[in-house]
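cron nightly-structures :: item 1 of 1
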Amino acid sequence: MRNIFKCTLFVPLFFYMATTTGCSSTSNEKMTHTDWCKKRYDVAEELFKAKKYGRTIEKLEAILSTCAGSGYMEQAQFLLAESHFNLEQWIEARGEYGSFVVNFPGSPFAETAEYRKAVSSFNIEYRVDRDESNTTTAMKDFERYLANHPNTPLRDSVNYYYNLLIDRVAEKEFQTGRLYMRMEKPQAAVIYFKEFLETYPNAKRRQEVLFMISDAYIELDQFESARQYLAIAESEAGENKNVLKNVEKARKDIEKAEASYEKRLKKEAEKKRLQKEEKNLVNQE
């Protein structure tokens, strides 16, 4: 192939057509554009199989820019996305899978591409204290995948990732509630924790939140509410001995806090009584 290009570059056209020797003797037919693209794709595919993904990407990007209409665009686009995926270049992988789905919706690889697009979104860097737009995007990608492929055998896997994404969003609510507890603002903490429990009933932090909302109600001297959430924690504990142990400890904390609260009420009542008596004595004088 290289000899052909060298000859066409440096040998005058009339001489090339006239001669039957030299570079034209290596082949009776000129390599077609499709054959040329196939050869380049085969090289890229071998590099991919050898896990040389960086070099694979270079070859495939060249194919995509020069081989339109050759029949190798579909394979090249998908293999390019796979290469980025294997290199854990999640942003690039999501972009390439997305382009593949748009350009080749009828491809047998379209469903795989749409699934891995969502997985790539899931793996894009995430931090609780930052904007959660990446999490929202990943959730939408999985929702779209299930809508387009309702009978997918990957549903369990999708549900696994989706529940982890829900936990990410729930974590932000949890951290906000805990922050209010640390700031000694139990009423605000209760609001966030109740919202957490209603919105994310299956979140991994649920058990922890039940104990924390109970603590918040203790701080508010609302002991019956504290007991109610503690009872929920106990009912959901099953045979978990650590949780049951914590429930018993929390019950004792409620009893101590309630006893202390009653003493405080009696003390305040006694103080008010003495103040009233002093006031009456002053008025009598």
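cron nightly-structures :: done
The CA atoms of residues 81 and 193 lie 41 Å apart.
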